Structures are given as structure tokens and as C-alpha cells.
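Go through this pair.

…
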Amino acid sequence: MQKDKIVILGAGESGVGAAILALSKGFEVWVSDAGTIKPVYKELLMQYGIAFEEGLHTKEKIFDAVKVVKSPGIGDHVALIKELRKAGISVVSEIEFAGEYCEAKTICITGSNGKTTTTLMIYEMLKHAGFKVGLAGNIGHSFARQVAECDYDYYVIELSSFQLDGMYDFRADIALLLNITPDHLDRYDYKMENYVKSKFRITQNQTSDDYFIYCGDDAEILNVIDEFPIGSQKLCFSFKSHGECAAVVKDTELCFSVNQNNWHMSIHDLALQGKHNTYNSMAAGLVGTALKIKNQRIRESLMEFRGVEHRLENFLTVHGIDFINDSKATNINSTWYALESMSKPVVWIVGGVDKGNDYSILEELVKEKVKAIICLGIDNKKIHEAFDGIVSQIVDTQSMKDAVANSYHLGNKGDVVLLSPACASFDLFESYEDRGKQFKTAVKEL
């Protein structure tokens, strides 16, 4: 009897994980990657005996699939995806595919900024409380592979809009929407409303037994929340709406109230300081409270969390100059938070692949805080157009070593060199992690 065939497009972490899950469920599996497959993933495919190709997509081997699982990096506008859908072949994300076989509870986090920090906060909190919990999505190991090989009761899943776009029947037991600011608009026809709809997909299929946690101070969320048929219990967090929200800041106290459980802690006790991190802590605290984790356990987790590499990472001080690695800031809003939190004169390293950035949002902060700009990218035209005449010293570089050397030369004792690119990394680097690691290596070599 012939097996049904699953095709996986893209052989990265999510694709190979989906292939392993498909194999474990008895499907014939074919993996196709138009690029070069990294050795670690090629070895895994061979270890499991999974057939694959790289450097091309062989259509006759793809179009006989009952389902195609695509990498989040492959957009819906790609001709192959359009052809598959026209042929009536289901095209889904790895998260959607894994969700079909997942019996664990899922806590799913999306937003333009703060996803990774909040995801890790929640994951560490659940571990601290003794839960059997996995970490998946944009961070950690493939959700699909963990569903195939692990035995967790809960998954904490960081979701990008690209992953949400390929999700249809998947249901989050607890869904978090942290904020919505312009990002990845090149994937959404440069229409903000399309991006907003993508983010709200995290609420689809939820029932009255589930929770939707969202920021009550975010204008984009509040403008459209009533347009979506959200069936779950809504819990908002806010600095302002004291009467309505489940987590609020009152003076210097962070106050939680969920299902008659009321508790509080001082914002000065939070491990991560700054307004944006207080939002992240409120969101994480609401998850713990909704899951009935002991208040003291939640408090301890929020007090002890260590933060995320490449996100406002205070890396090293060299001759009185602080070097901060914020390579994870791949959009304007992330960089806004970074600049807003600086209290010393800034030499700002910025640039990369622009995603439709409006740099005017940063103009006042740059005037106030930035003494010099180091452009790090192949095309820095928009940065010059935005800040020529505002910042007197703007230098163009095309390698991290040159960027760091120039920043050190322009900095003085008591200054900060801030790598906060506001752009994607793929013009000069493999990823934002690669960019951050190269930054740290170059700083060490000063």
C-alpha cells in the first residue's frame, strides 16, 4: 500500500524537524531546499534515511504531495507556493503541522518586539515551577521534532508573523500579543493592516477555556481588537488602565489580578529594568497567574531572569567605553527602545537590510542621545537621508571589524557604543546571531 507523501520546503531547524515528525507518523517524506543545506541538518536527514535535494526544487517530486510544509522564510508570494495552492495542495507551517499531533498545552507568544525575552521568561518560570516544558518556534529546537521525540506537558512557542501565516487549525491554549509596530512590511504588500491581521491569527480557534493576553497600551491592538472574533478570556496588561487590566503598574508596584488571585511586587525587584521589560514581565506574570503557579514562584522567576543574548546585552567596557550588543533589534521600534534606555552619549552602529523603515520615528532620540553614527550595510542611503545634518559624524562601513574600530575611534570615556541595527542582517551576515557574535569578537580584539 502506497504511503501518503509529505513534502518539506526548506531544510533548516523547522524543516528537518517537520521531516522527522512526518517520518514518525508513517508518511513518505521528501525534503527540498533551493539553497545549500547546512552540514548539521544534512547529517540528520541522512541519519533518519530521509530523501532530500538541495540547490533546486524538482516540481514533479513536490506536486504529488498530500501536504507541503514550508519554511517560514518562504513567502506566500513565491511562485511555487502560489502554484501549489492553485493545484489544491495544502501548504502549512511547521507549527501547524506539529500541532496536529501535539497533545500538550501550548503557550504562544507573538509581537513586533519583546517576543524572545518574554518567551524565555515564561519558559524559565514554568521550569522553576516544576512543569515538564519544551521551548520552540523561533527559539529553541524544532516544535515538530520535539512533538515526535519528547514527552512534554507544555510548550512555550515564540511565533513570528511568517509562522502565523501558515497556521489554520492550530489553537493556542494561552496566546500573547505583546505589541504591533511596523515590521516585515515587505512581506505584506507594505500594508500595515495585512501585518496586523497576521499577528491576530494567534487568537484563531481559541475557546472560553483559553486565555488571550495583550497590551492594553498598544494603539494598533486597541484599534482593531473588536474586529476579531476572539472567544477566549481576555487579560490585558498596562501602565495606564488600572480599572480594566489584569496586570497594571500602580506607582512602583506591579499588580496582578486573575480569577480572584490578587498579588503584587515592586517593579524595582524585576531582573530586567526599563519600561519595555516591565511590559514583558507583566505578560509573563499573567501567564504564570493564569496557570495557577504559586505567586512566590512567579515573583522569584521575574526577579532572577538573566536576559537574552544579543538583546541590549551589556558586553564589555574598553577604556571607559561601554559596548552594548543589541543585534536582535531588527526593526525601528526595537532600536527606539534601545536608544530610549541609554543614559550616556551614544555611538550608534546601524544598518543592514531595510524592511521599509521610517527613520523619522527615531529623529528626536537621535538628536538627544547620538553623537556619531556608524553605518553597517551595503546600502546606507536611507540612513544618510534621515540623519545627515542631524548627526555631524556619519561613517560608512561594510564589515563588523571596521564598524567596531570606527566606533572605538569616535567614542570617548563615558560613552556607549550601541549595536542596534534596526535592520535585518542578511546583506553581510548569516543571521542577527552571527552579527552579534562578530560584534563581540571585534570588541574583544580592540
Observations:
- The mean pLDDT is 92.
